[in-house]
Design brief:
Layout: H1 6-24, H2 29-41, E1 45-46, H3 47-54, H4 58-71, E2 74-78, E3 85-89, H5 93-128, H6 133-161, H7 164-178
Antiparallel strand pairs: 1-3, 2-3
């Protein structure tokens, strides 16, 4: 749908860029576009409204809206006198960003860390039971890498626990230093 409405052009650009940002995070660009639309309109929207605005199928919208709910980026609600489900984006970026990071950490990173822990523990047991220098070296490298991964993800956990106002102040200081 082409339009000469400059506002519509700006909205479309934002929505598409938000989709690209989502894709850079490893998330469906369509999920990002829908999230961008919900953020931009700032009011509850029905799935039908999302479909119409983005020119997408109802099935695609349904799948992505459920994913958005799962990520904690929006909530489902009902408006008085309307039996349809509506979706409202969490308007506060610090809130939804922290939710998204926490969900991603729990879904994707925590299982990998558990696997790395198991691999490092097994390597350590095998190295202790063997006089193979290569195996001991490998166990040491795994332990070192695991220490790095734990430290890094511990930093993410710390980030998630910092109050948004304190985090904003810290990031603003860091940004001011770059200027």
């Amino acid at each position: 749908m082409t339009t000469s409405d400059p506002r519509r052009g700006i909205e479309d650009r934002f929505i598409n860029e938000w989709g690209l940002l989502a894709n850079a995070w490893g998330v469906s660009p369509l999920l990002g576009r829908i999230h961008g639309l919900l953020l931009l309109v700032g009011r509850p929207m029905t799935a039908e409204g999302v479909c119409e605005r983005l020119d997408i199928s109802r099935a695609s919208a349904s799948v992505q809206l459920n994913a958005i709910l799962g990520w904690g980026l929006a909530r489902r609600m009902y408006l008085p006198g309307d039996r349809r489900q509506h979706y409202l984006a969490e308007p506060e970026p610090w809130t939804w960003f922290r939710r998204a990071v926490r969900v991603r950490k729990e879904r994707e990173f925590d299982p990998v860390i558990a696997g790395l822990n198991d691999a490092a523990a097994e390597a350590q047991r095998m190295a202790q039971a063997s006089d193979n220098a290569d195996l001991r070296g490998e166990a040491e490298r795994l332990a070192y890498l695991l220490k790095f991964v734990r430290l890094f993800f511990g930093g993410i956990e710390t980030f998630l626990q910092i109050e948004p106002s304190a985090l904003q102040a810290f990031l603003k200081l860091a940004d001011d230093e770059r200027d």
